[in-house]
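[recover] target loaded
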């Protein structure tokens, strides 16, 4: 069975029990599994798809917790336990509307120490889609490990390469380095998902269509701009298709974008799409509304619970939610 293979960071999100307080005033936190690429793998698996996450965690109780949480979703945990560093931590504060602020502990953390030689060929051989983000590109050796894996899958293969810049400026040395490094990877990707805020940061424009065209000119076949509660817009070189998201009462937006990506990659893998057929498929109104519409429902449902992986819905939950909105 072909899989969605995700590579990058997995960490502990310490999520506040109450919204609306700054970090210094939060009285208590609950630990939850997180990390964008791991969230995507978990989302695919929770929906019933084949998924594998490649990464490194500490040889510590938090690393054990993350492995167990990922495996509980049904995803394969291709994870190395590092004796060199501990599992990454992130403390999250939630505004009343569910939006977030982060404080990261990774100096360094185990995920930053993933090396190219850690990644086994069998972890990549059955990839229908390989997905990565930008956090693992910030430092070596995880940068080389990530890019090596993406190139090993992408070269001479029909596999789709999916990229989510997932900008976390607090982790980069400066904004210009972040912008340059993130944009450098666009030619590797067939599919890119960005938020409207990331379009403005990366390309200096509030015009998402103009920004999407700039990204398409760098090499991707499909660019999807997410609009939060408003849904998304799918761009190819000859189409622009807007897809609405259902309305929900958001509690915590952590992992919503990753839920969206997981839902989309689950749909693409289920359609047996290859890199060669991606642009044509995502220029088809019916396919886009089905696939991106499903992804929007996954993302929306993820905001209705706290945490990232704990909040990801099953396919039955997505279908039931869809039915209630007919």
């Amino acid at each position: 069975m072909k899989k969605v293979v995700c590579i990058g960071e997995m960490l502990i999100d310490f999520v506040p029990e109450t919204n609306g307080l700054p970090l210094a005033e939060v009285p208590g936190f609950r630990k939850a599994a997180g990390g964008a690429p791991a969230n995507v793998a978990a989302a695919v698996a929770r929906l019933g798809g084949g998924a594998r996450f490649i990464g490194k965690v500490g040889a510590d109780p938090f690393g054990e917790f993350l492995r167990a949480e990922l495996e509980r979703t049904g995803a394969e945990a291709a994870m190395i336990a590092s004796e060199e560093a501990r599992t990454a931590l992130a403390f999250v504060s939630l505004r009343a509307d569910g939006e977030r602020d982060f404080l990261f502990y990774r100096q360094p953390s185990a995920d930053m120490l993933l090396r190219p030689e850690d990644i086994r060929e069998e972890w990549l051989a059955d990839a229908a889609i390989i997905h990565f983000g930008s956090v693992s590109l910030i430092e070596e050796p995880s940068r080389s490990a990530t890019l090596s894996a993406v190139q090993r899958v992408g070269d001479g293969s029909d596999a789709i390469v999916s990229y989510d810049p997932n900008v976390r400026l607090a982790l980069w040395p400066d904004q210009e380095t972040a912008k340059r490094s993130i944009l450098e990877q666009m030619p590797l990707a067939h599919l890119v998902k960005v938020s409207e805020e990331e379009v403005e940061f990366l390309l200096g424009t509030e015009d998402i269509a103009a920004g999407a065209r700039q990204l398409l000119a760098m090499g991707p076949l499909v660019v999807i701009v997410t609009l939060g509660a408003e849904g998304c817009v799918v761009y190819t070189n000859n189409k622009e298709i807007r897809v609405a998201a259902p309305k929900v009462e958001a509690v915590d937006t952590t992992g919503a974008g990753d839920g969206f990506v997981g839902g989309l990659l689950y749909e693409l893998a289920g359609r047996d799409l290859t890199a060669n057929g991606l642009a044509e498929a995502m220029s088809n109104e019916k396919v886009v509304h089905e696939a991106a519409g499903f992804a929007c429902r996954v993302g929306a449902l993820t905001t209705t619970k706290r945490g990232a992986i704990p909040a990801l819905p099953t396919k039955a939950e997505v279908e039931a939610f869809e039915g209630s909105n007919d």
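[recover] notes: The mean pLDDT is 93.
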